[in-house]
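Incident log, structure service

09:12 report received: a user says their structure output differs between two submissions of the same chain.
09:20 pulled the input from the user's history:
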Amino acid sequence: MCGILGIIGFNANKQRIINMLKSQSHRGPDFSDYYLEEGKIALGHNRLSIIDLSNNANQPFFSECGNFIVVFNGEIYNYLELKSELRLKYFFRTQSDTEVLLNAYLEWGEDCLDKLNGMFSFAIWNKNNQTLFAARDRFGVKPFYYYIDSKNFYFASEINTIFEAGVSKLPNNEVWLNFFSDGSYGLPNETFWKDIKQLEAGHFLTIKTNHLQIKKWYHFEERIEKLQNHFEPNEEEYITNLLLNAINLRFRADVPVGFNLSGGLDSSTLLALIDQQNIDKSAVEAFTFITNDDRYDELPWVKSMLENKPYALNICSLDSKEVPKLASEIAKNQLEPYGGIPTIAYSKIFQSASKKGIKVLLDGQESDEAWAGYDYYTNNSQNIIQGINSSPFRTNVLDLEFSKKYSKIIYNKPFKNDLLNLQYRDLFQTKIPRALRFNDRISMMYGTELREPFLDYQLVEYVFSRPQNFKIREGIQKWMLRKIAEKFLQKNLVLAPKRPLQTPQREWLSYDLKDWVSSEIEVLKNNNWFDKKQLQLELDLFFKGNNQSSFHIWQWINTALLLK
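09:34 re-ran on a clean worker, output below:
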């Protein structure tokens, strides 16, 4: 996992590309370099060495013929299988997945994307015909931001990098308004900044003479329709093997690999599947975060899960006093709103892993969307936030002129089934895109790579396509995952209850961090998006005990941090 960037056009020059590389150096602390044709093309790469640690695998990486140049962020997990397929025709001078990716593109063109199992965002420059081809993985695990004007096309792994090239930083008012009004983080091609776009998950682009074309390559909906009529003889065994294979592929690395652990079903299943791998388990370490609050911390369950197992446990503690500094640092890194104190606490894991030299971490997140794990899947509500009974938004604090421009986002509903449409919304338009963005920036902020086996595309497709009673049965959600987990888990193991929050965010914002909260929100009183009086009234109510929800308070803090 790394950082990629580039400029196609008149502004491609040495100083800009160096500034851009510095801006996202945390993504690739092991090596940085660039390719430049002044006034035509600049490609840059920040390398985090994971597979083939030699200098031969550094990027930008050139094809054997010298005509094609790739910058690549991510991992192609099935690179060994693809290499076997390609080696009869191509000579390989490295052991890297980067070279496999480039040769796969040379062999199959855009069709190579269907063969890749991984998380990726890459760009390939064809020197002969002066064309850039760039693509993003199926679910958008790895980011690709871009900006285009009449003369230049800029792209990068992070938004800050594009601003570092001299692009103007202006808020995207419509996206901010939807964030305050209904908690939306923008559509999959949008950002919180005007004219800064995302290449959508499962799409590729080509650009030649500043003419941009974007095309969808991953047709999830069609694949689901085909799979709905396909049933394996032994569904439980088949899915178990998909899970085991997803873990196995994600242990491919030439550096130490660890994993993140909480006390719930997904983490316990991840742990059980790691137990089944033929690896040196004594070299694999576990990480969990705590806030030293027994109402929220899952440490007792985590310790119970690891009892009599060889994995060393790293306990990563977050104290309320650390929040202001970390919140500011993470805001500058994310450059868009993020998930509050849970995200800050989560960052402590990657900070700890980085200090120990562990570059790769597996995580049990991102299973709820395919397996139907959220509470609102059972009541068919249109919520996009788990575990709420009343609205967490306070639109009364918004300026009337600003708020009247609100237009509710209409999400795609490609299926006839209501549950599938809710799952599809969360997978491609709401929950997964924002969670992946939070997680990518948090992990890469400390030069660590996060791998998410529950997002293996073969696993997601098959599970998503199963009938409803396979996912929810007799009121039990993620029914088949629980059934599979039971085969591996200790019979007496008690898991932590499923909860939307694992940190004392509302308590800290109400009491411990009250002065900091007040000072940050004071910043917003000078912003014409807000009604000063209503903002203060709501803040006073929160401090006086109306704090069952702290989501709106975090929204305002986060906004202040980003707009300073």
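09:41 both user submissions now match this output. Likely a transient worker issue. Closing.
09:42 reviewer note: The CA atoms of residues 4 and 45 lie 5 Å apart. The radius of gyration is 23 Å.
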